[in-house]
Input
Amino acid sequence: MSLLIGSLTIGFILSLLALGVHISFYIFDFPDITAEGSITLGAAITAVMLMKGWHPLLATPMAFFAGALAGAVTAILAMKFSINKLLAGIMTMTALYSVNLRIMGRSNIPLMNERTLVSEVEALSQKVFRASTVPLLHWEVSVRDLGQLILCPLLIALVALLLYFFFRTNLGTAMRATGDNAQMIRAQGVDDSKMIILGLAISNGLIALSGALLAQYQGFADVQMGIGMVVWGLASVIIGEAMVGTRDLGYTIIGAVMGSVLFRLLVAIALRWGVNPNDLKLITAAFVFLALIMPKLLPFFKARIRRLAHA
Amino acid sequence: MLEVNGVRKTFHPGSVNEVRALQGVTLDIQDGSFTVVIGTNGSGKSTLLNAIAGSFLVDEGTLHLAGRDITLWPEYRRAALFGRVFQNPFSGTCPQLSIAENFALAAHRGFRRGLGWAVRGGLRRQVREVVARLDMGLEDRLDTPIGTLSGGQRQALTLLMATWQKPQLLLLDEHTAALDPKSADQIITLTEKIVTSERLTALMVTHSMQQAARFGDRLVMMHRGQLIEDLAGDRKKRVRAEELLERFEELRRSDLLDESAAEMLERCYV
Output
């Protein structure tokens, strides 16, 4: 049971990563690799601030701003200096590795004994439930886990709603149009590179926020924690897209969140089955590969089957 | 109103692909006029329009609009002054956004875009009313993505969007060339209706001699990056499509002559 609750919670936390990847890859059509560095950046900033005794409610949002800065750097490299988009992301990501080490001062910061969002939630849940465990469907569940499982989706829902409303405003609509048809949006008087800078800032801000939450949840920030996160986010977005089956703005946002949670559940099941955790990234990459070629393969197989049926 | 002064543009200078697209073009467009630009393939007529719109910066010469020097303005900044319709009917609209959202983008051309709701009730009603006049049945489909519409429908909407905020100058770049004959006819009729009723200043590049003869109050012909003919007033009114075709044929023959003469000289002396 605690495995299920744990995967759901991590799924919700990483849905911020999925939303960020959705914004850069799908809305702006910008293959942004900065994510691998900015998720660690968020974790690093928040961990250091928590260590210095800042309140978690102040330390966590700081991750957003740091991530936004990283995203803006990538976008400026790509748009103002006309550097290949992938390369711009790789450059920022590489630079962030050193930056993150500088911020943290070492490669790993444990947060078990600090005051974090997790410890706050634990205290709050214990106050509400007046116990340290409660029975849930015949299982004894720790109120800390339960509190996280309740509060995390609420936070994500808030962020998702804000994003939805933002993308329906004049500014947000212009941003969506930039990824769709840059020539058109320039002809409507919009500086498209400014839109992309702002868009990648929001995207990487969300990803860094996801890193800050993840570090607090797992109890440490680690300089390696970003590796493979872009593909992870992509896998979530692809699953989400398959689930909602439309490109309508609201549905794709919900899809990214649902995809992230479902993907995390699938991973938990795979691990339970005895899949070696070291193989996880290989499996994730293979999964994204399959998901990307499916739309091309399906018609081919269908045509084959039809021909066989006629013969 | 618009003053184009000695504008030159060379693409890929110094390479084998060097194209001298504009070789000193000077053109003065009067307020309220409807100027039609024609020319042979590769004459630089579309390049001229793009130079005015700011798709690239010119190598030499200046551009002034209503007294303001816009020579170095980036494309998006100039867009506050111009309405644009492209040759490709898919260039002027955002396929994934709905009809209403596309109009919301156009309604803010030249204004700051903030955190106000993009598709408001008031705008929606106005869009509905204007789109209904097209008689294409689109007024009930304001929330469908524009990408699901046909090229002709999208070009009609682009035209309405380009003139939603009254532009100082409407730039039309062969905007019927990629459409089927029936849609092309609808679009050119709609263009004339809007330009006359809104009293717009327009600059239209076209490939069609019929359109060139029928529309506008001034006709400019381009060849090899230069203006070679400028008909206004009565001379423009009298001009017929056949005459224009003859003039084109003449140009083609003189081009051939140039080449054969060069070949002959080469044979004799090299």
Observations:
- Chain A touches chain B through 23 residues (CB under 8 Å).
- Chain A is about 75% helix and 5% strand.
